[in-house]
Amino acid sequence: MSTRPSQRRISRLSEIGRVATRHGFGYALGRRRTPDGDPAGRGRRLREMLDELGPTFVKFGQLLSTRPDLVPPDIVAELRKLQDDVSPFPYAQVRQMIREELELEVEQAFLSFDEAPIAAASIGQVHRATLPNGADVIVKVQRPEAPRQIESDLQLMRSAARVVRDRVRAFDFIDADALVDEFARSIRQELDYQQEARNAETFRRHFAGSDQVIVPKVWWRYTTGRVLTLERLDGTQVADLDVSTWSDEERRELAHRMTDVWMTMIFRHGFFHGDPHPANILVLEDGRLGLVDFGLAGRLTDDDLGRLTRLFVDVATENLSAVPQRLAELGVRFPHDREDELRARLEELYLRYYGARLSELDPIVLIHDGLDLVYSMSMRLPTRFVILDKTIATLGSVTVQLYPEFNVFEVARPYARRLVAERYSPRRIALNVQRDVRELGSIARELPYQVRDVLNEVRDGEVKINIANPGFDDLTHHVDNAVNRIAVALIVVGGLLGSAIVGAFAEGGGLLAITGFILSGGFGVWLIWGILRSGRL
Ligand SMILES: Nc1ncnc2c1ncn2[C@@H]1O[C@H](COP(=O)(O)OP(=O)(O)O)[C@@H](O)[C@H]1O
Ligand SMILES: [Mg+2]
Q1: Which residues of the chain have pLDDT under 70?
Q2: Which residue, of 76, 134, 461, 468, has the greatest Cβ tally within 10 A?
Q3: Which pLDDT belongs to residue 35?
Q4: Burial class for 124, CB neighbours closer than 10 Å (0-12, 13-18, 19+)
Q5: Which ligand ends up closest to the CA of 126?
Q6: Does residue 279 have its Cβ closer than 6 Å to ligand 1?
Q7: In this predicted model, what pLDDT tens digit does every residue of 325-347 receive, in sequence order?
């Protein structure tokens, strides 16, 4: 190409301007003084504009369609229709790419290679092929111009975001720069096929031996940053299933199974497929689900899950003062001048769950409510939680299409319950106590001061100790009984001894001694009778 980069950018920028004006968005770009176009059709116009601007913008529109927190519902509905389908690039360029990347001609690398791709998207396209050893594979080949075009579109998006922010008050609450950054991170990740291959291997390892899920094997010898070769799965995309002929039960079962697989990844493996799009899930002959397209994966560490759970438990148990700290631990950033508002929103959230027991709480719903709060406060959420939210949202919409009454949360609940149960199990608590003891060690140095404080209070008579012990009544009962037995024994023995002494030493004391014997015996019997009646012996 003979044009210099800056010229290219200017002409692309003016092309964007032209396209935007044509679709009625000239106002946003400063080309018109007043809003133009029919406001009712704004979603449709936006979708058509992005479609015309090309793949990067289409992907951006798809990202926006997963953020109902930022984008009004009418626009979300339109953006969901965006398809990342583009016309395939010529076979000559596929050959060229394979030659450069694998350092082999297509004929040397593969026994057979279908010229026509089975799918073409903005970043790459997928061809069926067979390896020299006879293995059936798919080869994903990146568009030669993809990295360059994406980078330059990202730059343009940054300028567009700035223009829009300066001109359109209604977009004030959107941090457009941050949104573009987030988008840039995820699209760059998708450009690296080696990363995708590593993700595939991780999923394959996690599902090894599963009779529910199959993940294709990576052929590393035929894989580079821009060419990806995977075992070919023989199945039908969920998108291509004709579910209209299925029974309700069959549809419900598939929706349930898909959700179960994702919950396993999220809660058990801590590593999940971030795009449960119906074209990325295959149904095999034997009923297993085949996963493909590993460009976007989310990671959730045990610590993340622990912190999330603690956050919800704190909210649920009115420990609201700890919440800002918990949010900070999760990496959530919020504006300090809005702390009061945050506290008010937290109280509101708390009141909603007031009185519910831990076992009754639904952590998934809590996660959802929590994220709602996070978004409405324009708090910055770490990317891994954004991917989690997007994944659950996509899964929700895919499964509802399969079976309208389906509720993702129903399947999610036992997983989340177990999470809470595990976190508050005796073993876990014991471990936590061990950790707390270690932490105590570190504050032991301060202890002398605290002890002195307490002693001062004792001296000043300010410490009052209440002992409430449910076993105390029992103890009193035992003491009563023991005292009674001793009293009986003393009186009887005393009477007998006294009489014996009198009898032995007193001259002519026989009668007195006998009287003593009788009296002490009588007292003994009377006492024993009284004690037996009170039941305390
Ligand atoms: N291992 C595979 N076996 C069978 N079909 C596959 C495999 N990988 C991808 N496909 C098919 O190719 C399509 C596009 O592949 P995908 O990896 O999803 O590319 P993209 O990132 O462009 O969406 C998938 O929707 C699926 O139908
Ligand atoms: Mg895909």
Answers
A1: 1-6, 8-9, 26-40, 66-70, 164, 167-175, 312-318, 353-368, 370-371, 374-375, 378-381, 407-410, 412-413, 416-417, 419-420, 422-537
A2: 76
A3: 54
A4: buried
A5: 1
A6: yes
A7: 777 787 777 777 777 788 788 77
Q: Which residue's alpha carbon is nearest to atom 17 within ligand 1?
A: 293
E strand segments, 360-491 = none
Nearest Cα to 360, choosing from 327, 313, 307, 392? 313
Using only C-alpha atoms, the chain has a radius of gyration, in whole angstroms, of 38
Model confidence, pTM = 0.68
Judged by phi (left if over 0) then psi (alpha if -120 to 50, else beta), residue 213 lies in: beta
**What backbone torsions phi and psi does residue 151 show, to the nearest 5 degrees?**
-60, -45
> Alpha helices, DSSP H only, in 354-407?
363-376, 383-402
Q: How far is the CA of 293 from the centre of ligand 2 (A)?
A: 5
**Residue 235 near residue 284, CB atoms below 8 Å:** yes
Q: Which one, of 10, 12, 110, lies nearest residue 53 by Cα? A: 12
Instruction: Report the amino acid identity of residue 154.
Output: L
Q: How far is the CA of 228 from the centre of ligand 1 (A)?
A: 11
Asked if residue 98 has its Cβ within 6 Å of ligand 1, the reply is no
232 CA closest ligand 1 atom index: 3
The size of the chain, in residues, is 537
* Distance (Å) from CA 276 to ligand 2 centroid: 9
> Which ligand number lies closest to the CA of residue 282?
1
According to the model, what pLDDT value does residue 331 have?
78
Q: Are 241 and 255 in contact (CB under 8 A)?
A: no
278 lines ligand 1 (CB under 6 A): no
Residue 275 Cβ inside 6 Å of ligand 1? The answer reads no
CA 94 to centroid of ligand 2, rounded, Å: 19
Determine whether the shortest distance from the Cβ of 138 to ligand 1 is under 6 A. yes
List, for residues 222-268, the tens digit of each pLDDT value.
999 999 999 999 999 999 999 889 999 999 999 999 999 998 998 88
What pLDDT shows up at residue 55?
75
DSSP state of 126: E
Q: Is 292 in the pocket of ligand 1 (CB under 6 A)?
A: yes
Report whether residue 232 contacts ligand 1, using a CB cutoff of 6 Å. Answer: yes
In contact, 330 and 307? CB cutoff 8 Å: yes
Segment holding 428, helix H or strand E: helix 426-443
CB 384 within 8 Å of CB 300:
yes
